[in-house]
Design a protein that fits this description.
Distance between the termini: 13 Å
CATH topology: Rossmann fold
Bound molecules: adenosine monophosphate
Structural class: alpha/beta
Shape: globular
Helix content: 40-55%
CATH architecture: 3-Layer(aba) Sandwich
Largest sheet: 5 strands, parallel
Strand content: 5-15%
Strand order of the largest sheet: 2-3-1-4-7
Amino acid sequence: MALNLVLLGPPGAGKGTQAARLTRLWSIPHISTGAILRDAIKAGTPLGLEVKAIIERGALVDDTTVTRIVCERVSAPDVARGFLLDGFPRTVAQAQSLDSFMHSRGDLVIVEIALSEQDVLHRLASRMVCSECGANTQDDREVSTCHDCGGALVPRVDDREQVVKERLNVYRRQTAPLVEFYGSRPTYCRVDGARMVDDVTAAIVGAINACAGENGGPRA
Ligand code: AMP
């Protein structure tokens, strides 16, 4: 049985970092809508040109566009063992579209990585990302190159303080309602994202094994 995983949580909660670890453990593709959109901007495609200004001001790209991207991506052959969605859904409308798409394709396992707004602001003020592969780094200002590919580390354009505040507003208004949308499902769980990275991974793996395992899903 496939593992169809959704990571929820505010910007900076550690979704990208945890996604990289979880997708290695379960051998499933990491589907980050933010990374897909940033790649489109870098490549200068029509999609990239359309979304550049939206992302730079911390707003959301429209539901139809991102839902189309995700539905196409999760229809690819490499998702036979499942997938991990990072940054999607971000609105109740996106979650409803995902439910319709998943109808008869299996259950979603939803993991919320919780982090206070104060911790978000603190983390994003020092986050650096690789300009080549997009990997996040730990908060270490001494390191200037990516440990995965050697690319230069740079701040993300949307991690500037004013934009982070807008992204948090957007999260509060449009994404936080997903906690209620998914909260009563037996395959929903919440972990504390303020803990050390390894502890968060262990908590997520335990939670996934508990809820996916009960449904006959794959264990890490
Ligand atoms: P992320 O890397 O997930 O923080 O996403 C970066 C930016 O991409 C967001 O601030 C949005 O502008 C856009 N974005 C990513 N995923 C979505 C989504 N599911 N719906 C709308 N906009 C998105």
